[in-house]
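Project standup — Tuesday

K.O.: blocked on the structure for the chain from last sprint. Re-posting the sequence here as requested.
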Amino acid sequence: MKKITLLSAFLLYTVLISYGQWSTTYLSQGTVRMGGAVLGSKAYFAGGLIVGGSDWVDTDKVEIYDMETGQWHMDYLSQSRQITTGVTCGDFVFFAGGMSNWVSSSRVDIFNDLGFWGDAELSVPRFAISAASNGNLVLFAGGGSFTEVYDVVDIYNINTQQWSTDHLSIPRTSMACAVLGDLAFFAGGMNVDNSEVYDRIDIFNFTTGTWDTKTLSQARSFPTATVAQNKVIFAGGSLSNGVASDRVDIYDYDNNTWETASLSVARSAATATVCGIAYFVGGGIFDQGWTYGTDAIDVYDPVANSWSVMTLPTIVTENTVVAIDSTLFSAGGFFENNPPYGIPLNTVEMYTNCVYSHTPTIKSGNDLFEVYPIPSAGNIHLELSHDNKQKPLCAFIYNMQGQEVHKQTLLNSDREMNLQLPAGIFMLKVISEDRVYSKLIMIQ
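H.V.: unblocked you, prediction finished:
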């Protein structure tokens, strides 16, 4: 596959607000409906719709931003398409399904850190798939075409490179999806034309391979979901009459309890979690098409169980949101200057939580930071060559979706961690007085 390197426009402007910092970089052109995923220090934005001449056309571009170098690189999908679904599993990034020339696609393009790795096919062509991964398994659930929705779940094992299939309890498309512990949650969704929406939550247990069901407090399509601390947050969406929902359902995994809250603006908002805080960024209203974008960002702190509101630099819908460590990315999307007419955006707005990011970063893999044994059953030892053992360290563990799965303060000379995590690859980040260390670890 062809590959080029683009000069970065990183940090064109910087504005300090609140406890964080905004900066901007740029895609090669305005793009909407991209798939997004994160692998290590790289954010991937794949496919989507661009303006070609006087019409909208699919693109095969995969634009990759490297957080460590501040540079962009470009790779390519094997098939141009929009509404492809991105997910990371192990050392691989997958972009599955979508629409190519307005026809449902079964294509799955697979990338690793070196670039394009190969492609595969789903059992059924479809778009608006929900994808989840844990350990060595990645699930591609539901989705549909213009005439049919599906209950099929395609399952890929990255160790054996084998495919299998399973099924949701009811067929549907446009579900929210999140993973907490060894559970994947597929929530809400709709039939072909949004005339019927669902409150069903299908829950897959990666350890046992079994399914369970729960219920949202309100049936809706296009909800979004993320995980913060021990909670799964399902937010917003669309009712069957095309009216936007502001409903938020919060599931506390540890206490097995549910509660509800409300977004500041009723909408379906792209979401990600940064440093344990959930952000619901921009978004719009779906009524046989997306309209009325917003610049609102609803922020949920699961520890304080509190909500606040920030402002995105641009009003946007159909944007793509991912997170790397302490930085949130809102990429591309549609800016409406005369709804429903507007322009595709090439901006990537980046919000960095300064509480976690003011110290210099030491890249993983150098001789200043050792973690052993690797792989480990969960008990690991840390060695830092510049370690003042009279000072505490803050340790964070993130899964390959960028979600924080463990946080711990290491006091005095204690540099041991006993991790109760499922098998898989994780990012360990350790913050000392004047440095930030990071390294990939493997739990088996």
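K.O.: great, moving the ticket to review. The chain has a mean pLDDT of 87. The first strand starts at residue 4 and ends at 6.
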